[in-house]
Write a structure and sequence with these properties.
The chain is 42% helix and 9% strand. It is built from 5 helices and 3 strands; from the N terminus they run αααβββαα. The chain has a 3-stranded antiparallel sheet with strand order 1-2-3. Strand 1 and strand 2 form a beta hairpin. The longest helix has 18 residues, at 62-79.
């Protein structure tokens, strides 16, 4: 039996069709759960289904969750340049939350309340 008899017609899925069939993965997410959650991103990891992310009760995509972490890391680096140890500004501090909110509001139209995320 040849391959063409086994698969008579091959079709390529569109991006929209791929989104509906994408599922969980054996590879880890880009960042640790603790980092997502320290920035207010709630997580729900699945083995066979795709992982879910929320911030402030609104669903966000995996890419948006990663963009928020990247944004936070960039801000953290800029705000803490030259500071070490206890002098660094953490994600949960009001000054950091205000700085991140200025970016979140411009890009996504919402602001984070400063509370950490959780499993849902």
């Amino acid at each position: 039996m040849t391959l063409t008899k086994m698969i008579p017609e091959m079709t390529e899925l569109t991006t929209k069709e791929l989104e509906t069939v994408s599922a969980g993965t054996f590879t880890p997410n880009t960042y640790r759960k603790s980092e997502y959650q320290s920035l207010g991103i709630s997580t729900s990891y699945h083995f066979f289904d795709k992982d879910e992310f929320q911030i402030m009760g609104r669903s966000i995509t995996y890419d948006q969750a990663n963009e928020i972490v990247e944004m936070a890391r960039t801000l953290n680096k800029a705000m803490n340049e030259g500071y070490k140890g206890a002098n660094k500004i953490g994600y949960s501090e009001k000054r950091f939350v205000n700085a991140l909110n200025s970016q979140l509001y411009l890009k996504y139209g919402f602001m984070w309340d400063g509370n950490p995320g959780h499993d849902f």
